[in-house]
Amino acid sequence: MVSGRDRNAPVSTAVLYERTGAGWRAGASRPAHNALNGWTDHHREGDLRSPIGVYTLTDAGGRLPDPGTRLPYDRSAGFTAGGAGFEGEPLSGSFDYVVAIDYNRRPGTSPLDRTRPLGPDRGGGIWLHIDHGGPTRGCVSLGRGPMKELLRALDPAREPVVVMGDAASLER
């Protein structure tokens, strides 16, 4: 689960929950970033907000070799980010590891696939990726270590999802 501090904040907390025979077990709470302008119920291309909702996690990839995920993994030089973020932080390395969030994308394809079933105006390319120290354009970012841990923990047989949004929206 990724929970933002408020609707317009780019700072969140991420917690991996695992279903066990005894119920749900929460992992460690990790700092995360989301989009510069916070969260939205109706994401649009370029709004600089992360979409609120529950989304499947079916595909992964990155510039670096597979760290041991069970998800299909696409290693490609296409996972390259350059330039600087909104706060001047370097973006290089942000896409060393990614997990595609199945928002306006075709599950079962590389995270680099640009197919947008809801249309291009609804945005896409929403990923979990390595944190670069500042807000994102719409993705959720985690530290390098937690991102590798997440990749190793996700099992497609368990149908993983991400629940994400600002805390007030998630309480509804």
Automatic annotation (TrEMBL):
**InterPro entries associated with the record:** LD_TPept_cat_dom
Any GO molecular function: transferase activity
**Pfam families xref list:** YkuD
Annotated L,D-TPase catalytic domain residues: 44-163
Protein name, per record = L,D-TPase catalytic domain-containing protein
